[in-house]
Amino acid sequence: MPLLSIDDLHVALGGRTVLEGIDLHLDRGEIVTLVGPNGSGKSTLLRTIIGAVAPAHGRLVGHPGLTIGYVPQRLAIDATLPMTVTRFLNLPRRHPPQAIRQALEQACVPGLGRQQVTDLSGGQFQRILLARALLEKPDLLLLDEATQGLDHRGTADFYRQIACVRRELGCAVLMVSHELHVVMRASDRVVCLNRHICCQGTPERVLASPAYQALFGPDTGDALAFYRHDHDRPDSDPSASTPTPPAAGTTRLETAP
Ligand SMILES: Nc1ncnc2c1ncn2[C@@H]1O[C@H](COP(=O)(O)OP(=O)(O)OP(=O)(O)O)[C@@H](O)[C@H]1O
Which residues, at least 6 apart from 50, have a Cβ–Cβ distance to it below 8 Å? Predict the structure, then answer.
């Protein structure tokens, strides 16, 4: 049974259809990247998975006991509010000091616990958000443009860290990114979204797909020449999904019995 199954998901926001006919299945241990133009529904899909957005139609079924860690696209902290990293990580609920230490180590920022959150660099803050998500020991880690504002080196380091976290926790990772070159390298599977799923499969297959090239241009194919690596997992289904028409009704996030 997949870790998370999404079947025929439709989401409407402000009276407009934002996602339609989404079929997506995630397995434990795989790193899947969501790419797509601005406004294509990537954040909405993640927010629907965590339950912050209600689907208009469709099914989301999680593996029994599924725990999700979420790193949002942005989180504004009031600059006038004195708060240490440890205090921030203890919101909304307290964790044992050892768990905080471990999460900071896993996020590669050990020793930042006493630092003021407002004094952190952008890259450090992203890692604190990652530590916060890891505190929940997630089976599924959702990252929404988690490397925004990082330089190339910081971005590459961040994705390397995600690969380590996946190895250590055995969790699945679903991440949104616009840094196609880097994420393609870091992903087992790429899902190209433009309100519906245009194509999905290994990075190589998606780069070669006409639907992807129509969105991003044909020259992005060179990206993988630098980053090609051997995938240690079997390919996911590379076939393009066909959007299905919306049907009436509502649904809620379910967990399989
Ligand atoms: N609360 C909302 N009410 C109405 N429309 C919304 C709301 N949130 C998002 N939208 C719209 O839904 C569409 C998808 O937005 P979403 O943020 O999911 O896209 P995205 O692919 O993550 O974009 P980006 O790459 O720019 O972050 C956009 O057209 C956006 O304007």
Answer: 68, 70, 142
Q: Which residues line ligand 1 (CB under 6 A)?
A: 13-14, 18, 36, 38-44
Please enumerate in sequence order all residues whose Cβ is within 8 A of that of 232, keeping only pairs 6 or more positions apart, or say none.
none
**Where does residue 234 rank: exposed (0-12), middle (13-18), buried (19+ CB within 10 A)?**
exposed
- Into how many domains does the chain fold? 2
On whether both 89 and 14 belong to a single domain, the answer is no
pLDDT digits (tens, 9 = 90+) for 8-48: 999 999 999 999 999 999 999 999 999 988 999 999 999 99
Q: How many CB atoms lie within 10 A of CB 133?
A: 23
CA distance 4 to 47: 14
User: What ligand 1 atom has the least distance to the C-alpha of 145?
Assistant: 27
35: left (phi over 0), alpha (psi -120 to 50) or beta: beta
Question: Cβ-count burial of 78 within 10 angstroms (0-12 exposed, 13-18 middle, 19+ buried)?
Answer: exposed
Cα–Cα distance measured from residue 69 to residue 48, given in angstroms and rounded to the nearest whole number: 13
First and final C-alpha spacing in the chain: 11
* Closest residue to atom 8 of ligand 1, CA basis: 13
Domain with 101 in it? 83-135
With a CB cutoff of 8 Å and minimum separation 6, the contacts of 219 are none
Q: Are residues 145 and 204 in the same domain?
A: yes
Rounded alpha-carbon distances, angstroms, from residue 246 to 125, 232, 242, 243: 40, 37, 12, 9
ipTM of the modeled complex: 0.97
Q: What is the pTM of this model?
A: 0.83
